[in-house]
């Protein structure tokens, strides 16, 4: 499934990585591209998180729940308590992780289509609450004016995450790098073998000593926490959190599309898919077709399921 | 029986969907013994194995293993206690190579202490086990590309990788060629010589007479006979359960 | 007030039956998990909206046109679904999820995100002192029940219906008995498409159309099918009316916004209660 990376693909990765690192120094439309790619990094991190669950053999259609919960946790703490960004982000991760724990326990006997369906429905609960608890979440209007990320200096370098798009770009890139390490571990470590065994045949895995429930639980909670963290970052970066935006079906669809496009079983696959498709969508398709550009995501899902030799398993 | 019993099952009753599958089963297997479970289709043999491995929860009764009550434990804990099994319908991990299949057992099937104490590297140990079951040269073949007989043998190797004291084999000889059957019988004897305790299911009576110390016959969820092979195979209830009215001397060789 | 609740429940419930019937026939016969069911209904609603708005087609004429269009579309989709690989249920679910996104965005492109509504055909009728029944509700109840009865009669009385039910219950056995399963797939998609086509204009007339409104209808169809089992018409009716009652009650006491929570909550509860859910199959004796 995942052949050892050949030297050619390593070379390609180095080129792509260097291009991304050096882009802010003077590429084409630097500001715009950095803004778009910054968000591509954010969604790539969500994709990596989603794939942790997929690696355990479950297709989730409900990651918008974790994302939205993270965004709301951060935005609400910022608004009602005035907490600093590190606190709000930690809370974002924890809130989503708690929901992930509930999902993992409640849906522990669901598989395949049933699991996909249940996760799809699980988005509705936090969404409807956020939509209607007017006194706390301001309902469907959403929370506006969430403070941007702070500026701080590392080793004499000023890193203004609040306003400097280049700084945000590198910050998100660092987050993605960490996510990639996690993803590589989820494929190549002992834990990765447990995930793989559970994915390929969970009864066989169980009688060979793999703790199926704990493996899935760990993957789901970790995935939810990372997705929630991304949601929190989204709230601070955008400055506004609306139920219709953060609990949107597209947030759930994106990781599925990116991961399938890039290849789910290589550590860089989901990232590649996210950068290519999100970049193409936002830089070329969106300006040309403002309403309805997101059809590309659905179209990619359909085309891949029709033409990939292994369908969902690839 | 003077040897201490390794597995002790008392008053075991299992229901699935309100339907009784096993009723008041008593079974004990001594250290180093080879016991065969026989019985017609639907007698509850596989369910009994699944209860021992923890895949199916019993309604009542108890299972003791090595003096410990393991009733209701999850499968992975039972595996680490030292019970390994193969499946009736072989289920190798389809995308993993044969060696990787075995490595899963080596990595996860033992208690952390034992894993640290292990002397040989994992890859070498996997190769040794594959050789033991006669799969040398197939290390890099994905599970789904192996033949049925090879998949069965892979399952035995994978089960052995967890370092079991008790091995449960579900129909490892069903549907195999005569040579493969004698190979399987040889394998079971080799394992017993190494001190392994084996409980096997043998619906078609392929291995029973050749390797077993003792037979347990099940029919419709209940034990109908128990004892040395020759005695059980001629037990009138066993004959009627297998063949209806017409007992025959060729019962032991009959295949579907 | 109770009478009004009853009328609302009956009209909503009839509509839900219609929504669930199409889904459940397609799912029961072909095992296709059409997550885009609701989107197709909304699409049909927009089609009717376009017809009444730009060509001033009378409402009654939009119905057969939409049914025809949706039947053709459904048959086209069947050709795509047939190319999917195992595991079919999950593959078709994810595929239809993609399809739903495409349809949503196409509708967003052509009709924008504004709420649209097909104009009503007349003032409401006063039944008793404070109880009103709108003409939409009459359309809804009348047509939904007619369609349900037609499908029910077809399934029970005709040879074709018996073959369809055989496929729903035991696909492989039906194939062995000489039923042309491929043919039955086409019929199921055609019937399902016609029901979708019928539901669309009714939805557009009695509620607002919005490109992202389809998922709710899909969830409703899934909930009712899960509750009743595929192809059991009486179960579908009961499930639909029960759900409508719960939703009407929730709307009455908590406000219409909390209504969406009902179907999602029931769906999750049903799935946890019946984990094999829609995919329940008899286990072979060997697996026991």
From TrEMBL, chain A:
It is a multi-pass membrane protein. Pfam families: BPD_transp_2 (PF02653). Its main location: membrane. GO terms for molecular function: branched-chain amino acid transmembrane transporter activity. GO terms for cellular component: plasma membrane. InterPro entries: ABC_transp_permease, LivM-like. The chain crosses the membrane at residues 6-25, 32-52, 89-107, 167-187, 208-237, 243-261, 291-308. It is found in: Cell membrane. It comes from the Bacteria. Keywords: Cell membrane, Membrane, Transmembrane, Transmembrane helix. PANTHER family: HIGH-AFFINITY BRANCHED-CHAIN AMINO ACID TRANSPORT SYSTEM PERMEASE, HIGH-AFFINITY BRANCHED-CHAIN AMINO ACID TRANSPORT SYSTEM PERMEASE PROTEIN LIVM. This is Amino acid/amide ABC transporter membrane protein 2, HAAT family.
TrEMBL record, chain B:
Residues 7-245 form the ABC transporter domain. Signal peptide: none annotated. The keyword Hydrolase does not apply. Keywords: ATP-binding, Nucleotide-binding, Transport. GO terms for cellular component: plasma membrane. InterPro entries: AAA+_ATPase (IPR003593), ABC_AA/LPS_Transport (IPR051120), ABC_transporter-like_ATP-bd (IPR003439), BCA_ABC_TP_C (IPR032823), P-loop_NTPase (IPR027417). It comes from the Bacteria. Pfam families: ABC_tran (PF00005), BCA_ABC_TP_C (PF12399). One of its GO terms (biological process) is L-valine import across plasma membrane. SMART domains: AAA (SM00382). GO terms for molecular function: ATP binding; ATP hydrolysis activity; L-isoleucine transmembrane transporter activity; L-phenylalanine transmembrane transporter activity; L-valine transmembrane transporter activity. Gene3D superfamilies: P-loop containing nucleotide triphosphate hydrolases. This is Branched-chain amino acid transport system ATP-binding protein. It comes from Desulfacinum hydrothermale DSM 13146.
From TrEMBL, chain C:
Keywords: Amino-acid transport, Cell membrane, Membrane, Transmembrane, Transmembrane helix, Transport. GO terms for molecular function: transmembrane transporter activity. GO terms for biological process: amino acid transport. InterPro entries: ABC_transp_permease, BCAA_transport_permease. One of its GO terms (cellular component) is plasma membrane. This is Branched-chain amino acid transport system permease protein. The keyword Transport applies. PANTHER family: AMINO ACID ABC TRANSPORTER PERMEASE PROTEIN, BRANCHED-CHAIN AMINO ACID TRANSPORT SYSTEM PERMEASE PROTEIN LIVH. It is a multi-pass membrane protein. The keyword Membrane applies. Its main location: membrane. It comes from Desulfacinum hydrothermale DSM 13146. Pfam families: BPD_transp_2. Belongs to the binding-protein-dependent transport system permease family. LivHM subfamily.
């Amino acid at each position: 499934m995942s052949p050892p990376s050949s030297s050619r693909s390593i070379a390609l990765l180095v080129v792509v990585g260097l291009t991304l690192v050096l882009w802010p120094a003077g590429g084409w439309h630097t500001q715009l591209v950095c803004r778009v790619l910054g968000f591509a990094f954010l969604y790539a991190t969500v994709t990596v998180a989603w794939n942790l669950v997929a690696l355990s053999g479950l297709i989730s259609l409900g990651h918008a729940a974790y994302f939205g919960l993270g965004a709301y946790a951060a935005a609400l703490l910022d608004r009602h308590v005035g907490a600093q960004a590190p606190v709000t982000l930690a809370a974002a991760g924890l809130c989503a992780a708690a929901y992930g724990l509930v999902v993992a326990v409640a849906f522990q006997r669901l598989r395949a289509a049933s699991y996909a369906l249940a996760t799809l429905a699980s988005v509705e609960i936090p969404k409807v609450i956020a939509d209607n608890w007017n006194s706390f979440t301001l309902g469907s209007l959403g929370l506006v004016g969430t403070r941007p990320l702070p500026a701080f200096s590392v080793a004499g370098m000023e890193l203004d995450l609040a306003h400097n798009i280049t700084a945000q770009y590198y910050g998100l890139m660092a987050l993605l790098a960490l996510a990639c390490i996690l993803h590589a571990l989820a494929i190549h470590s002992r834990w990765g073998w447990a995930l793989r065994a559970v994915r390929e045949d969970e009864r066989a895995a169980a009688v060979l000593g793999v703790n199926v429930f704990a493996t899935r639980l760990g993957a789901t909670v970790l995935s939810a926490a990372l997705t929630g963290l991304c949601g929190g970052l989204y709230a601070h970066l955008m400055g506004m959190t609306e139920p219709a935006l953060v609990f949107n079906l597209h947030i759930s669809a994106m990781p599925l599309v990116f991961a399938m496009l890039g290849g789910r079983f290589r550590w860089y696959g989901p990232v590649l898919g996210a950068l290519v498709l999100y970049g193409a969508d936002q830089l070329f398709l969106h300006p040309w077709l403002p309403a309805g550009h997101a059809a590309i995501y659905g179209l990619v899902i359909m085309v891949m399921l029709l033409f990939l030799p292994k369908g969902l398993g690839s | 029986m003077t040897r201490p019993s390794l597995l002790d099952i008392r008053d075991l009753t299992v229901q699935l969907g309100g339907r009784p599958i096993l009723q008041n089963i008593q079974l004990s297997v001594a250290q180093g013994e080879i016991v065969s479970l026989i019985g017609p289709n639907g007698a509850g043999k596989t369910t009994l194995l699944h209860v021992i491995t923890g895949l199916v929860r019993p309604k009542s009764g108890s299972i003791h293993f090595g003096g410990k009550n393991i009733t209701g434990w999850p499968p992975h804990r039972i595996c680490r206690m030292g019970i390994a099994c193969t499946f009736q319908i072989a289920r190798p991990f389809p995308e993993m190579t044969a060696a990787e299949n075995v490595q899963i057992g080596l990595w996860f099937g033992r208690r952390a202490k034992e894993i640290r104490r292990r002397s040989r590297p994992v890859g070498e140990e996997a190769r040794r086990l594959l050789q033991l079951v006669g799969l040398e040269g197939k290390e890099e073949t994905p599970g789904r590309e192996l033949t049925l007989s090879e998949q069965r043998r892979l399952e035995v190797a994978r089960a052995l990788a967890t370092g079991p004291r008790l091995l449960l084999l579900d129909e490892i000889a069903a549907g195999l060629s005569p040579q493969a059957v004698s190979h399987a019988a040889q394998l079971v004897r080799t394992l017993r010589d190494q001190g392994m305790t084996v409980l096997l299911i043998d619906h078609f009576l392929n291995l029973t007479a050749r390797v077993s110390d003792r037979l347990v016959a099940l029919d419709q969820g209940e034990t109908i006979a128990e004892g040395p092979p020759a005695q059980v195979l001629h037990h009138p209830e066993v004959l009627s359960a297998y063949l209806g009215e017409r007992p025959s001397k060729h019962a032991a060789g009959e295949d579907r | 007030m109770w009478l009004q609740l009853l009328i609302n429940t009956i009209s909503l419930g009839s509509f839900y039956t219609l929504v669930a019937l199409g889904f459940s026939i397609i799912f029961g016969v072909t095992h296709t998990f059409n997550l885009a069911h609701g989107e197709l209904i909304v699409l049909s609603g927009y089609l009717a909206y376009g017809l009444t708005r730009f060509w001033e087609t009378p409402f009654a004429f939009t119905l057969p046109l939409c049914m025809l269009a949706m039947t053709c579309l459904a048959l086209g989709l069947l050709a795509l679904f047939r190319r999917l690989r195992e595991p079919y249920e999950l593959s078709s679910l994810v595929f239809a999820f993609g399809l739903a996104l495409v349809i949503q965005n196409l509708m967003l492109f052509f009709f924008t995100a504004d709420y649209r509504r097909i104009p009503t055909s007349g003032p409401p009728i006063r039944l008793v002192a404070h109880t009103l029944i709108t003409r939409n509700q009459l359309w809804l109840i009348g047509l939904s029940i007619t369609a349900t009865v037609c499908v029910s009669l077809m399934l029970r009385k005709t040879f074709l219906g018996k073959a369809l039910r055989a496929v729903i219950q035991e696909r492989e056995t039906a194939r062995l008995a000489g039923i042309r399963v491929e043919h039955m797939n086409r019929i199921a998609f055609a019937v399902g498409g016609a029901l979708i086509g019928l539901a669309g204009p009714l939805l557009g007339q009695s509620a607002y159309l919005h490109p992202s409104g389809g998922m709710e209808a899909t969830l409703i169809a899934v909930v009712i099918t899960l509750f009743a089992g595929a192809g059991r018409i009486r179960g579908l009716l009961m499930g639909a009316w029960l759900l409508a009652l719960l939703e009407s009650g929730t709307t009455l006491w908590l406000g219409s916004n909390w209504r969406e929570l009902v179907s999602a909550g029931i769906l999750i509860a049903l799935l946890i209660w019946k984990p094999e859910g829609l995919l329940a199959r008899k286990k072979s004796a060997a697996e026991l």
